[in-house]
Amino acid sequence: MRQRLHYWFIFILFVPFPLLAQFPNDFWLLPEAVNLNFQAFKQVSSDSSGMVAGRNKQLFHSAFKPYSQSDYYQFGSSQVVAGLSESRVVPIVDVSGGMSNQIGLGGYTSIGAITRWRSTNNKWSFSAGYTGVLQRGPSYLTALSVDRGVLAGVGRSFDLGDSLFFAHNPFGRVVFSSSKFLQLEAGFGKNFWGDGFRSLILSENASSYPYIRAQVDVWRLKFNSLYGMAWQNEGNKFFAAHGVSINPSKRWQITFFEMVVWQQRDSLNNRNLELHYLHPLVFYRPVEYAQGSADNVLLGAGFKWAITRKTELYGQFILDEFLLSQIRARNGWWGNKFGGQLGVKIQDLSKGWSFQSEVNSVRPFTYSHGSPLQSWTHLYQPLAHPLGANFLEGLIRFRYSKNRLSHQMTGIYAVVGRDFDVDANGSIDNLGGDILRSYAGPFRDFNNSMFQGNRTNRVFVEWQSAFTPTGWKKFEFFGRALLVSEKSLAGSNNEVFVQFGIRTKGLLEISRFF
User: Fold this and answer.
1) Is 314 within 8 Å of 196 (Cβ atoms)?
2) Gap between the Cα atoms of 361 and 449, Å rounded
3) DSSP 26-40
4) Would the pLDDT of 314 be above 90?
5) Can you give the pLDDT at residue 289?
6) Strand 209-218 vs strand 191-193: parallel, antiparallel, or unpaired?
7) What whole-number distance in Å separates Cα of residue 468 and Cα of residue 181?
8) Helix, strand or coil for residue 372?
9) What band does 324 get if pLDDT is binned at 50, 70 and 90?
10) What Cα–Cα distance (Å) separates residue 21 from each residue in 31, 33, 477?
């Protein structure tokens, strides 16, 4: 097996590059985010026609981002390539090898392509792509493949043995802009709702899913209506989400969210796509109540305040369920389910440096439901924060970029409460740490608290450096050093992973799935 791994690394490190050199230089028009990463220090959004509005421009309505962004611009320039009427095909490359103190030889390979077509009148645009992902380590990602059969953020994984996993990642979208006020979209990909590094509403954490989206942009309002389909081995489910962003002034953005999840089949009938939720202006909770259903409805809100031209304060609040009387009683009722986010971004902290700090916290049982299929998840991954519920997380990020060199440091500390056999009867008790479990029959109705269960302290520290050689405008060599430390009732576990490789600029950073 070790000999086969050596052959594999020889292939991924040397074979792709002679092939890539055959493409002419003007062939490489790169997407802002291919697989796709919204960098924390770029405010990237889309206007009503789907084109990038500007790389560093102060953008309103930034809470709605199509994660499968496929808008093109020349890398290293702020000019947008507009009015494309022909198809362009762009190869996608992310190839690296490394070493871990736990798994030994490891690496990550993502090879694929993306194509885009845009009509001359800018009303229609189409993009589609595919990447095949091969991964071995680090172990915190491997554990997800072993336990749930998925590659984080990619899709169902195929176990090739010796901790080596493969997954497919198709994505694409069709956009019709009938006017500058209305945009309709259908696709297979992801969406990100929020202004932070994380989102407590809808993030890129889970795998791609089929969806349709309508966006209306009028005056100081932007309204998004999203309908998608998700699945797990137990069956399929649908979800709908509304979001409205309001700009009371040039410095403030306030956003309100509403989401609902329902399963395709229940014990009574086959519901499929629930027509009542398709109305773009309806409130989901009254509709759910009128139907007598037990769907999972969540509410949310967010804000962004531009304190200065370089500094932004932002936050989110997620509300799953609560009783005011129980909150006032302070008795730890399990059904008080909510969470919050607060963060700050500073661009150009000093010349070339940017900074971001963020705190996220979600109470036990949030995002879960009486029917596990109706949890706010897709393919056994949370649709919001990767830690699910019953956690407190703090993170900081520094980024430096100048000319052809860039550095990035990310530090994350999280305290997580995981389900645990509290009464030592041989079964794992439901303490609200696993949102894939039914909330029916919690271990206790009252006296619940944050981090209950197996309290786990997690530390994640990563340093990335990237360099673009002269004449290699579209690629970058990169190095990555990663420390993941975990301490719980089961003991301590520390992993160091060092990685080197080459990639197309703008590719997904797998560290976001911590």
Assistant:
1) yes
2) 13
3) GG-PEES-SS----T
4) yes
5) 54
6) unpaired
7) 39
8) helix
9) confident
10) 19, 22, 15
